[in-house]
Amino acid sequence: MGYGSITSLHFPSAYPLNSVCDQTLKAKSANQKTYLTFDILKLAQSHSVQITEVAKGGFNAMYKVGDLPNDIVLSTSNFKVTLNSEMKMPITNAATDQGYKIDFTVLDCGGNLTATKGKMSSPGFPKKASASVTCVWIVTVPLKVKGSKALPSTAVLQINGTQLKGQTKSNYIEIYDGPSVRSALVNTSTMTSEKATFESRGQSIIVKYVNGKGQTGFPFEISYSTHDCTADEVCHNGICLHDDWRCDDIDQCGDSTDEQNCDTGLVTKKTLGWSIFGGMLATVVLIVVMTIVYIKYKQRKNNYGRLETINT
User: Fold this and answer.
1) What is the pLDDT of residues 232-287, one digit of tens each?
2) Per-residue b/e over 239-256, b at no fewer than 16 CB within 10 Å?
3) What are phi and psi of 183, to 5 degrees?
4) Alpha carbons 98 and 84: distance in angstroms, whole number
5) How far is 251 from 262, CA to CA, in rounded Å?
6) Does the global pTM surpass 0.85?
7) Which of 5, 37, 274, 297 qualifies as a cystine partner to 71, CB 3.0-4.6 A?
8) 177-198, pLDDT tens digit by residue?
9) Measured CA angle at 41 (ends 37, 45), to 5 deg
10) Diameter of the chain by CA atoms?
């Protein structure tokens, strides 16, 4: 396994102005895939970073000023990173910035999954992995297009939670709810049943499997499918509104769409919980009061009986 970081010239100081700098990475086996994640990308306006697979017709993407790009799985470990800081007329900015830092890992398995459904598994499944391996799958399900409008879709993982019991610090699975390892890390310790499921927040999800050197890895297989959201299942900000988000007093849409219209006969989970607790408490109090009344009634009846005997 190979891993490391690729940085722009002079990083972390400013990269040179009016230049084109190429860096090429080539592992021992060009057939192995490579996983890339941007750690830093700070460019001046009009400058760009381009990632190109050396093989003809391979991956080719350009990145400019903006948010950090999504993670990438290249189909090869032979690729080039090009930083272009050429000055263009008319000159509006004669400055540069910090540049880039891209972390890379040469993979033993993994890839990009873009179909509506599919599977990913440990090497040699159902047998245990005996070699040191690192695998990354980036699942990106397609959007549902209805007329001229595209509705959001989510990836739904089907996981046999019993297969994850063998995880250790050096032999584990990580699931990220989004298109990058900067996305939220999913808590897999709660996935204990044979038919555990997890639905992503957006279109993408990342599954990473690591089996450390000298370890015997646990075998696993994870399936995924696509949930096409309807027009009634969309938050105002455009993401898919999960059914279990509604009226639970938690803003999971990010714009409070899931917490609207909750006072029209709908009972929130929190309100329902307090209602059940209040009902149980009232029942206990009623039982205690009735018991006390009954005991006092019996005591009075016995006292009356003793008085009648004395009077006779």
Assistant:
1) 889 999 999 998 898 988 999 999 998 988 875 545 555 556 567 667 877 877 88
2) bbbbeebbbbeeebbeee
3) -75, 170
4) 13
5) 13
6) no
7) 37
8) 999 999 999 999 889 899 999 9
9) 145
10) 125
